[in-house]
Write a structure and sequence with these properties.
The chain is mainly alpha-helical and about 300 residues long. It has helices spanning about 5-25, 25-30, 35-55, 60-70, 80-105, 110-115, 125-140, 140-155, 160-165, 170-180, 215, 255-270; strands at about 35, 190, 195-200, 200-205, 210-215, 275-280, 295. It has a three-stranded antiparallel sheet. It has a two-stranded antiparallel ribbon with strand order 2-5. A two-stranded antiparallel ribbon has the order 3-4. Bound molecules: protoporphyrin IX containing FE (HEM).
Length: about 300
């Protein structure tokens, strides 16, 4: 199942993006630099996810912090502390989601959460429902933030293509695809083999852990012509592994595209070109984006 790009989500995106841009305050509108991720892309992703699922995720910093802790635990550094933080974050988020399920039973509505909370026929326990909600949320939060920030990061480094996309907004679709290809928000996918397979001449038995570097696959010269070149008109950019593929391909891929486009279009409408004042290099083993990117309005 794939969540389609419904009209309702497109209009929600734009309305939410404009509300958050209003909330940035007069200093940002007068050209003072602000952190694009922390002040805009993160609350945008968290609040959109909440709207979609019918969850009241108003403490966006707290929710974003949980997902930063989950991402930190996927760095495989050998240090147990990130794993401990991720476990604590999971417990806290689960408690919050269990409260949401209880609230949806007290006051049923039309949201996805309310429907699963009030439908006993699926046979899932509340802990199992909370686990599913955690997966959808994790799909929709860290990734959308990164997709918005990474696209603007790449465009800022290629001003001619940025100007072209600002002028002809239809090019934004290719721009975000290409940015996601070069800086995949999910840059490492974990899987387990269902049966024995041979990968590049190596025999991998059944039930074996396989780690896939999306970053490397997306730069495969056998698939992408001159793979390190940023080209918003690359004809096969959608063929990257950024949304994975097969039965477990991203559930929200159409929505993700609509959200990224909607957020960037709203920023351009209100601020003109966003000048990058300072940004650190995109980083992260499993989830990838610049940790900080401060931008300023050009008008
Ligand atoms: C640009 C944004 C996004 C990117 C780059 C992205 C990327 C991915 C990737 C690579 C996977 C496969 C992960 C794996 O196999 O380990 C995945 C799965 C998933 N994504 Fe996304 N995603 C994005 C946005 C979203 C949104 C907005 C939602 C929900 C509304 C979502 C929901 C999910 C879910 C539920 C799965 C698990 C699917 C399954 O296992 O069957 N994602 N996503």
């Amino acid at each position: 199942m794939v969540i389609a790009q419904a009209d309702v989500s497109a209009s929600l995106d734009a309305a939410l993006a404009h509300r958050l841009i209003d909330d940035l305050g007069s200093a940002a509108h007068a050209g003072e630099p602000f952190d694009l991720g922390a002040r805009f892309a993160s609350p945008f992703a968290v609040l959109m996810a909440g709207e979609l699922l019918g969850l009241s995720l108003h403490d966006t910093e707290r929710i974003d912090g949980f997902y930063a802790d989950f991402a930190g635990a996927m760095e495989y550094s050998g240090n147990p502390e990130p794993m401990r933080r991720a476990d604590a974050a999971r417990a806290e988020l689960t408690a919050l989601l269990l409260d949401e399920l209880a609230a949806a039973r007290r006051a049923p509505g039309h949201s996805l959460t309310s429907q699963v909370a009030n439908d006993g026929s699926h046979g899932l326990s509340d802990d199992e429902l909370a686990a599913q909600l955690r997966v959808v949320l994790s799909g929709a939060i860290e990734t959308i933030q990164a997709s918005v920030v990474n696209t603007l990061y790449m465009l800022a480094q290629h001003p001619d293509q940025e100007a072209a996309a600002m002028d002809d907004r239809s090019l934004l679709a290719g721009a975000q695809e290409e940015a996601r290809c070069l800086i995949p928000p999910v840059s490492f996918i974990e899987a387990r083999t269902a049966e024995p397979v041979v990968i590049a001449g190596v025999e991998v038995p059944a039930r074996e852990f396989v780690g896939v570097s999306v970053l490397a696959a997306n730069r495969d010269p056998a698939h992408f012509d001159d793979p390190l070149r940023f080209d918003i008109t690359r004809p096969n950019a959608t063929r990257s592994l950024s949304f994975s593929f097969g039965v477990h391909a991203c559930l929200g891929l159409h929505l993700a595209r609509a959200q990224t486009t909607g957020a960037i279009a709203a920023l351009w409408d209100r601020f003109g070109r966003l000048q990058v004042v300072d940004a650190v290099e995109p980083e992260g083993f499993a989830f990838r984006k610049p940790a900080v990117m401060r931008v300023a309005a050009s008008r």
